[in-house]
Amino acid sequence: MATQHSITIKAGGSEKDYWKDLWLNKQLLWILSKRDLSVRYKQTLLGVAWSVLRPLMTMTVMVFVYSYVAKIKADPGIPYPLMVLGGLTIWTFFANTFTQISNSILINHNLVSKVYFPRLLMPLSSVAVGFVDFLITFGIYLLVTAFFQTPISWQIIFLPCFILLTFITSMGFGLFFAVLNVRFRDIGQLIPFMVQVGMYVCPVAYPSSLVKGTWYEKYYNLNPLVGIIDGFRWCLLGSKSYFNPQSLYSTVITSSIILVISLIYFRKKENTFVDHI
pTM for this structure? Predict the structure, then answer.
């Protein structure tokens, strides 16, 4: 028999009660996650195949533009397509998750206006789409690795750490923009632009070794995605791939601070969502 529980809505309920309700509604989190996954490719001709075609087509274009036209080289001993796909794999996880979280409240506006549940469930459920796409792209990366006969390094044991950092970073930025998106609909137009520009600002299609020793390297490393992307590639390609451990300081500190601030901001504005939807 399924376990039943009741939720009593009280004015000024404690923070402890909120997180308890969040845990009690974990089944709703699973339902919302499954729905987001099914809706993503519903009524599409190719369905899940888009998750395979997108990274491959993006990698092909980037290799042509950056390697053949711009003559940018990968770190010595690393095939350029493999470097690009490694960066794309973790970048896509961040970009998709950030975008889904930022739009999660508006996508679920019908639930917000009718049913009570911890609104944080909606951003959390949005992570499922980005994570499934990440797993598919990572599978493609392993196949490309086999094609280039490049062995996976032992540093892969640290891979979960960088995946967790990506989740923290995307959740932190996503929650903040999710709140703004409810109040100011212009944010919905800004988010795709930010993601598009971010792909060029971050070392997705070029190695960070190009920045090494320059006067702006310290400012470059302030970007929390730099440490994540370089670290992710280092986990897969080993010491051949350039990775400055100092860039992780910015990643950990910035991402943690933004996540805490965004959680506080989200909780403060959560009860006002229904007024603006």
Answer: 0.89
